[in-house]
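Researcher: Sequence of Transmembrane anchor protein follows. Predict its structure.
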Amino acid sequence: MKDINPPLLETRQIIKATIGALILASVVFVIAVLPAEYGLDPLGTGKLLGFSGLYQPDTPIADTTVKTDVSKAYPVLKLEELGSGPNVPTPKEVYNPAPSKQFEQRQDIVTIRVPAGKGLEYKMNVLKYGQVKYEWVTDKGVLYFDFHGEPKQANPGKDEYYDSYTAAYSNNMIGTFLAPFEGRHGWYFKNKTDKEIVVNLRIQGQYMLDAE
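Model: Prediction complete. Tokens:
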């Protein structure tokens, strides 16, 4: 039985094969990879052969942040500022039992325009123990807000009773709310700047809009 010895490549042949492979790889890179991956077509062959159509530029992520003047100092809010105060009696309707059925679940997106130097309210009607989730953000700037509720009363007194849930200076807020009594619940927004500020409000839950 004879031994079979495969032919050995000479050094010159190895060098030629290596150079050929490098040239081929370079051609493929210029013709196909550059147009398809990077949108670069120096020879025009990418468009001719269809590789340029494979290029998809990166889409920049939208900036969802709201620019505010974080260096500005805002007044410190005190606990005593919450609600209508101790001198306003609590209406008896606050202690009424919860209804057997709540409002139907719904969701709304609302745009609220707060004029420069002005304040306004936006309210929902919620039954006792009705649940609402909310999210709001301004288009620019910071607002003072008081998230509060006013109970439904048969005979309202001279001084209006209301209960504050949250008060702060902010440009964005999210939360979940459980109504402690039946009535109108919502936000008082105060714009202390010299430009209109738009509030984009999204709400979900068991409520009726105040205008309905």
